[in-house]
Design goal:
Layout lengths: L2 H23 L18 H29 L4 H23 L3 H19 L11
């Protein structure tokens, strides 16, 4: 497996690890029969962790598709790997800023992550301009 493919797996794990500690910390109040109960996520940290988790789920398909497209079209693997690592780093920082209630920085990081995704996605179209 390539580094980029491991980053796809890492992005999936990140979305799960974003909400897991909140459920673990509040395990006495968490009702697995009602996992989406809004009352469980009423606290400020829990609600922000849920938001970060949901955004991770929303961002995952585009990232996975972009990586697979770039690899399928034989783009420079090192560049795909580097951009994938950068995306994962940005997403980790995004989660911390989301939970830490830093909305401006969070929006900047979201935009940066989206731009990285767009770069990976359009890499096949720009391949002739990229180093081999």
């Amino acid at each position: 497996m390539t580094v980029a493919e491991w980053c796809v797996f890492g992005a999936l794990l990140l979305s799960l690890l974003t909400i897991a500690p909140i459920k673990w910390i509040g395990f006495r109040r968490f009702d697995n029969a009602r996992p989406r109960d809004p009352a469980f996520y009423e606290g400020p940290i829990a609600s922000r962790a849920l938001g970060a988790h949901q955004n991770g789920i929303e961002a995952f398909p585009f990232f996975a598709a972009a990586v697979l497209l770039a690899e399928f079209r034989l783009c420079p693997q090192r560049l795909v790997d580097e951009l994938s690592i950068l995306f994962l780093i940005v997403r980790v920082a995004y989660v911390f800023t989301y939970i830490g209630n830093r909305p401006t920085l969070r929006s900047i990081l979201w935009s940066l992550g989206f731009a990285i995704n767009v770069a990976i996605f359009f890499m096949p179209a720009l391949q002739r301009f990229l180093p081999s």
